[in-house]
Specification:
The structure holds two protein chains of two kinds.
Chain A lengths: L2 H29 L12 H28 L3 H33 L7 H21 L4 H28 L13 H4 L11 H49 L1
Helix pairs in contact in A: 1-7, 2-3, 2-5, 2-7, 3-4, 3-5, 3-7, 4-5
Chain B lengths: L1 H7 L12 H26 L1 H20 L4 H6 L1 H26 L2 H7 L4 H31 L6 H25 L5 H26 L8 H30 L2
Classes of the chains: A mainly alpha, B mainly alpha.
Chain lengths: 245, 250
């Protein structure tokens, strides 16, 4: 992709993301109805679910970036995987933090080591360790190859997080799809959305967060290109200095 | 020395026979057997992996017993978790030791020159490390029965422990092959491997502790964690088979 195109696309995504975030805020705080049993606290649900969903999608795209890199090593795929892990982690952190804040009024505790909360913590740790791996390798190609393999293997924890509440007894409700009979007994409230407005707000939040992901991804790719360019120029300067002396 | 010599002695077969699928799979199995045999022979001469794992586990069990001495009931309740912690940490040491020694002796390069499938190298390594860890568990389990008075002898428990170990080692060989090639190799392996293997280990520990009561649990109680362990094993082995050659080749 040419630099001009990249810059323009980044700009378009930036502005539409800003606009959509503003619209989403309005929807969440003013348009969505107040939930009957939990009251206004329930509004955190939109952030929580939206961020959780987009973090998993980001990790999936990191996996795709890793596979493409292994098929044909190119710095772009490495950057896509790296950026997706970074952004996915940001959303996963939002998801965990908002869940914890919501857990306080809903379950009367900030944290429980239930299967869902455990597996999401494990997932978070696995993707944090991704940066440890990258930091420990100097050779660019080896770093790309190893982090591609790691990001593929690490996706197992995303699958486990996604499916854990569907199999194991958990206090955490299942939003998409049916939960198993064993899990249903422990749920504190019905996970069905009792109003169309809630459904629409959730959909819009998820779309906005996805747009935010795309915007961040483009900014990150642009940033990486600038870093590479700066590195190249630095080398040129060093080269010229050495020749002149 | 022992590495090279042992590479030659077992029935080494190369994958030249591409004509029949049965001949090819026999060649593959031959390669696999050769690699496992090589590892076992090296281990028998040097005892580099098993000795470290064993001494570490014994020290860890003693430390745990000391820490939980005042609360024997609590120690009994958490014993299956303790067992897994000991296995995890000991196999991390074993993996590091086994793979780093191979890297230092450059014997991995000799293996890579051989015209064999990379997945056979991976599987061979997984099977051999698995053998060592299973041997370690065979020593640990009687100790745990003695210290905590819990029914670790139940065949179901042993089966779950084996299943959990398979997934852990499948992930471990892949990750350790990467971490030993980095700057911070000894530190990096536990940082990468412990969280990665937790889904399998937590499920296995849950399933094992369900079998610790006086009565056997019903199938529906342990079905989900066991299914998760098996799913993890399959996913990790598949990922390892397909990506191992990207890790070992330059």
């Amino acid at each position: 992709m040419k630099r001009n195109h990249l810059n323009r696309l980044t700009e378009i995504f930036n502005w539409s993301a800003i606009l959509m975030v503003a619209v989403t805020m309005l929807l969440i705080f003013f348009w969505a109805p107040t939930e009957r049993t939990m009251g206004d606290v329930q509004r955190i649900f939109y952030f929580h679910v939206g961020a959780g969903w987009v973090s998993m999608v980001a990790f999936l795209i990191a996996l795709v970036g890793g596979v493409l890199y292994l098929r044909r090593p190119s710095p772009l795929w490495d950057t896509v995987a790296l950026a997706s892990v970074e952004i996915g982690l940001a959303f996963a952190t939002m998801n965990i933090a908002s869940g914890s804040i919501w857990g306080r009024p809903a379950w009367n505790t900030w944290w429980i080591w239930s299967p869902r909360l455990t597996s999401v913590t494990v997932m978070w740790l696995v993707y944090v360790a991704y940066f440890m791996l990258r930091g420990a390798i100097e050779d660019e190609q080896k770093r790309g190859r190893f982090s591609a393999v790691y990001v593929i293997v690490g996706f197992v924890t995303v699958l486990m997080t996604f499916f854990s509440i569907r199999f194991l007894r958990d206090i955490h409700p299942v939003l998409i799809g049916e939960s198993s009979e064993a899990a249903q007994g422990l749920q504190e409230f019905e996970s069905g959305l009792d109003s169309a407005r809630m459904g629409i707000t959730l959909t819009v939040t998820t779309l906005t967060f996805s747009l935010l992901y795309v915007a961040w991804l483009f900014n990150r790719i642009r940033l990486q290109r600038m870093l590479d360019e700066a590195e190249r120029l630095k080398m040129q300067v060093i080269d010229r200095l050495q020749r002149s002396t | 020395m022992t590495n090279k010599e042992s590479l030659l002695t077992p029935p080494v077969t190369t994958s030249h026979s591409r004509s029949q699928p049965s001949a090819r799979s026999r060649a593959y199995l031959g390669t696999l057997a050769a690699i496992v045999w090589k590892e076992v022979r090296v281990e028998r001469h040097t005892r580099r992996t098993l000795s470290v794992m064993l001494v570490f586990s014994l020290a860890a069990v003693v430390v745990f017993n000391f820490a939980l001495e005042l609360e024997l009931d609590a120690a009994r309740r958490v014993s299956s978790g303790l067992l897994w912690i000991v296995i995890l940490l000991a196999s991390t040491l074993g993996l590091n030791r086994s793979l780093a020694a191979e890297q230092e002796a450059r014997s991995i390069d000799a293996l890579l020159i051989a015209p064999v499938d990379r997945s056979a190298l991976y599987l061979g390594k997984v099977i051999s490390v698995l053998l060592f860890v299973l041997l370690l568990e065979a020593i640990l389990l009687p100790l745990f029965i003695a210290f905590f008075n819990k029914p670790y002898w139940r065949p179901q428990v042993i089966l779950i422990i084996i299943l959990g170990t398979i997934g852990y080692i499948a992930a471990g060989v892949l990750v350790a092959s990467m971490s030993i090639q980095t700057r911070t190799r000894d530190v990096l392996l536990p940082v990468l491997l412990l969280p990665l293997s937790l889904p399998a280990v937590l499920s296995a520990a849950t399933a094992v502790s369900a079998f610790m009561g006086p009565e056997l649990p019903t199938w529906s109680e342990v079905q989900a964690p066991i299914a998760l362990v098996i799913a993890f094993d399959i996913l990790m082995l598949t990922a390892g088979l397909f990506t191992y050659h990207y890790v070992v080749e330059e």
